[in-house]
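queue> pop job 88
queue> type: inverse folding (structure -> sequence)
queue> payload:
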């Protein structure tokens, strides 16, 4: 399916504020409420819009440490390890990356002590992991919701 500038504008407005009503969106893009509703439904049907969600400031909920990990895994255990990590409540996201069976993972925890507990008791306990590298987030300049079409 081909998407036009109006579809892109609808998505940009929803990225900016996912709570906009069809009427508000219609005013911003110059269409009727019904036309906007139909376009959004088509974007959802085509899985261009995967989900509507809320972006939470994790620090306000006590998750003050944000860490990123590169996790090398035995190739035969990649799916199992990825699912195990994805199921952990401290893990915000897990992606398979290019390279020798590498997973990229984002973890949110309360403090550095909890990060140490996560690494030693939860991450290193996963069978199939061969190497772990970590980086601590110092400052966020842009996140996925900042994506522009």
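queue> result:
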């Amino acid at each position: 399916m081909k998407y036009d500038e109006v579809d892109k504008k609808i998505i940009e407005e929803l990225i900016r504020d996912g709570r906009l009503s069809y009427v508000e969106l219609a005013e911003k893009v110059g269409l009727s409420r019904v036309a906007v509703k139909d376009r959004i439904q088509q974007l959802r049907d085509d899985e261009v819009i995967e989900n509507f969600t809320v972006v939470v400031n994790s620090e306000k909920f006590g998750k003050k440490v944000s860490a990123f990990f590169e996790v090398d895994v035995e190739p035969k255990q990649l799916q199992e390890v990825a699912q195990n990590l994805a199921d952990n409540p401290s893990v915000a996201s897990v992606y398979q990356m290019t390279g020798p069976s590498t997973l990229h993972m984002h973890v949110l925890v309360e403090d550095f002590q909890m990060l140490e507990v996560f690494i030693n008791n939860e991450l290193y306990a996963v069978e199939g992991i061969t190497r772990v590298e970590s980086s601590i987030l110092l400052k966020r300049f842009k996140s996925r919701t900042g994506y522009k079409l």
